[in-house]
Amino acid sequence: MLDRPAPEGRAEAPLVLDTEPPRTLSFKDQFALWLNLGVSLIGFSSAATVLGAQGEELSFTAAVVAILAGTVIGTAALGVAALIGARTGAPAMANLRGLFGTKLSYVPTVLNIAQCVGWGVFELIVIAGGAQTVAGTDGYRWLFVVLAGALTTVLTIWPLGSIAVLRKYVAAAVGVAMVYFTVQLARQGFPDPGAGNWHGFLGATDAIIAVSISFVPLAADYTRHSRTPSASFWGTFSGYTVAQVWCYVLGLIALLQSGGDTEKIFSSFTGVWAGWAFLLVLVLRETDQSFANVYSTAMSVQNLFPRIDRRVLTGGIGVLITVLALQIKVFTDSYYAFLGLIGSVFVPLFAVLAVDYFLGAGRRGWDLSEQAPSRWLMLLPWVLGFATYQFLAPTAVAGWWTDFWTSAQEALHFTPQSWTSASLFGFLVPALITWALTPLTGAGSRSQA
């Protein structure tokens, strides 16, 4: 793994997996990248997952605290994943070769591909919706989807160049737009229908953690190019924390002003003077979200097929998500179930990853080669962590799935309490099990980074 050095002076990401990545990204580059990724049109509308259903809304104060707590917890995990990528120089899914072995790493790799494709489709849908709002039309959706898909694909061809553009130009424009909307929306005031209510606080916090955690299996795809591990951690942590908190709080205000209707949330932005122009900035930069998902899908596929040119992969994936986005018209409750599944899969996976890297086999160096032997025992804490998360907060992906977990709760005479955070216990259980297994799993690893 990573056994051939990159050509001297190379400024772009390698085309195949087994090439040493250039270390060109500074703290500022990574801060700007994650600042942009933390601001999302999906984030604005996803404020509904924090506020809660009508009639059961959290108070504004409770919702803001949930956003702060969930972001800091989730982004700390993101920063650690970024740090590991900077140390090994390997993409995120290739790092899982060290944790599970090459063959077993294909299991989370396939799950991550599904996640990234799903997010990529959602992003194109949101971009098209935002563009329609700016244009003041319900038509031409197909055109906006195609244009967004084309721009997304172009960005993935030169990923490090795209990150440089984000730092130099896009981050500043996004900052100006966010300041403008913050001032304008705050001046108008907003109702607080859930004043004094903190019931559902941990559920809201879990939803925010899940959003941050969704980037954990992507982080190393970019931070493998970091100049230093510290730059990767602090650039990721600070940039994403500032952006996500700002984005969700602003989305919360806009949602309250639109009566809790997520379909009308963008009207709060276009309702202010020149709001359409600043919303256009956010719509255009939303392509960095779809860019990240398409590029990381390609990086994940390269863990399965390491010698396929990433440009071929990103081109094909870009076409795929565009076609899918043309077929899917609106968000449904499946989106919120999607968030829950992300949390239940990747919160426990991160716990196992972090503990094994810092306290287990990773201390002596992971084997990241194509011949890395399977570590079957490492699947145990991951599966138990997933089960813990679903037991505490079953994901409503299907009736039979929810019934299974609620039946398990009844059989064990367990009733979820306000303190039973799925994210917290979904992390602690696999982390402790992984730590306990360290004497059995820590031997025999070697670094190929």
Any overview of this molecule?
The chain has about 450 residues and is an all-alpha fold. The chain is about 70% helix and about 0% strand. The protein has 20 helices and no strands. The chain has helices at about 25-40, 40-45, 45-50, 60-90, 90-100, 100-135, 140-155, 160-190, 200-215, 215-225, 230-255, 265-270, 275-285, 285-305, 310-325, 335-360, 380-390, 400-410, 420-435, 440. α6 packs across α7, α7 crosses α14 (about 285-305) and α16 (about 335-360) packs antiparallel against α17. About 55% of the residues are buried. Residues about 1-10 have low confidence and may be disordered.
Concise synopsis of the structure shown:
The chain is mainly alpha-helical. It is built from 20 helices and no strands. About 70% of the residues lie in helices and about 0% in strands.
How far the N terminus sits from the C terminus, by CA atoms, comes to 7 Å
Count the beta strands. Answer: 0
Q: Tell me about the biggest sheet?
A: none
Rg, Å, rounded: 21 Å
User: Spans with pLDDT under 50 lasting ≥5 residues?
Assistant: 1-10
Output mean pLDDT: 88
Beta-strand content bin: under 5%
Oligomer: single chain
Report helical residue fraction. over 70%
Number of helices: 20
Which class of secondary structure composition applies to the elements?
A: mainly alpha
**Envelope shape:** globular
Order of helices and strands: HHHHHHHHHHHHHHHHHHHH
